[in-house]
Amino acid sequence: MYSALTVALHPLTVSKIRKQVQAPMSASAANNSSFFNNIGQYYRGLGVVLTLAIPSRIIYISTLEYSRELVDMNVRQFIANPPTILRPYNNDLVGLLPLVTPISGGIAGGLAATASQMIVVPMDVISQKQMVMPNDAYKRDGSSIKIARSIIKRDGYRGLYKGFGLSLFTSLPAGTIWWATYAGCRDKLMIENDRIRSIPVMAQQGIIQVASAVSAAVAASITTQPLDTIKTRIQVGKKTMSMKPNTSLASMAREFVSTPGLYKGLTPRIVHMSIWGSILSAAFEVLKLVSRKDFEF
Asked: Partner of 163 for a Cys bridge, out of 125, 170, 225, 234, CB 3.0 to 4.6 A?
C-alpha cells in the first residue's frame, strides 16, 4: 500500500519541488500542458524514492510506535502516581490527561522523523535533482546511479547529505506538529462529536481519520513550508540565496526571511500530506487491529 500510494502521489511531489525551485516543465510540456502527454516528467525520481523509502518507513513506523507507547505509558503513570512534592496538585495533573495523547504523538512523530533522515536525505537529494533537470540533461545523465556518482565525485559522500541539518530541522517540527494535531483531533472527534454516532462504525472511523489527517496536514504544512522550500533549493543546488558556507545562524535566518516565494508549492504539499496521512493512518490502524493475537473476524 505504501508503494502504491507513493506512485499515485508522486506527481504532486514533482509539482511541489518544481514550484519551490521555480523550475518550469520542458518546452514541449509548456506548449502542451496535458498531464497525460507529459506523464514521464511527473514520475521522475520515482525509482529511487520507491527503493529507499521502504526502509525509511520501517525505521519511521518502528520508532513512532515504540516511542509513542513508551511516552504515553510513562506520562500516565506519572500523573496517576506523582512524586510527593506534586501530590497537592493531583487534581491539576489529572486535568492534563486529555493532553497526554497529543503530547505523546507529537514527541513520537518528531523522533520518528529524525530517525529516518539518514535514508530520506540522500533519497531527496538524488530524486529532486532528477525532477528539476532539463530534458536533454535528464536523458543523458538522469539515472540515479549517475547522479549519485557525480555528487560523490564533486562533493564526496557528504554531498548526498546536502541540507541534512535543515532537513532535520524541517522534519522534526513537521512530524511533531502532524502527529500531535492528528492525535488530538482524533481523540476529540471520537469523544465529543455526537453528529456522526448515528452512522455505521466504519464510516465514523473514516470521517474521523480524514478530518484529523487534513487538519494535521494543514497545520504541519503551513508551519514548516518555508523551511521545506529552503531545504529543497539547497539540495538541488538552486542558487537563489547569497549564503556562504560559513554563514552564521543569525545571517541564515535573515536570508531565509528575505528569500521570495517561500510558500511556493504549499497547495500540492497540503494535498499530498492530507491524502497520504488519511489513507496511511487508516490502513495502519486497521493492520494494527487485525494483527492482534486476540483479534477475531
From this structure: 234
Tell me the Cα Rg of the chain. 22
Are the C-beta atoms of residues 269 and 19 closer than 8 Å to each other? no
pTM, two decimals, is: 0.72
Contact of 68 with 149, CB cutoff 8 Å = no
CA distance from start to end of the chain: 21
pLDDT tens for the chain, 297 residues long, are: 778 888 888 888 888 888 877 655 554 444 444 555 567 788 888 999 999 988 998 898 899 989 999 999 998 888 888 888 877 777 777 788 888 888 999 999 999 988 999 899 999 899 988 888 888 888 888 889 999 999 999 989 988 988 788 788 888 888 899 889 988 888 888 776 666 667 776 677 778 888 888 899 899 988 888 888 877 777 776 544 444 544 444 555 565 566 667 787 888 888 888 888 878 777 777 777 778 777 666
Q: Which three cell numbers stand for residue 221?
A: 504544512
The residue type at 103: I
Angle between helices 2-21 and 46-80 (to 10 degrees): 100
CA distance 39 to 166: 31
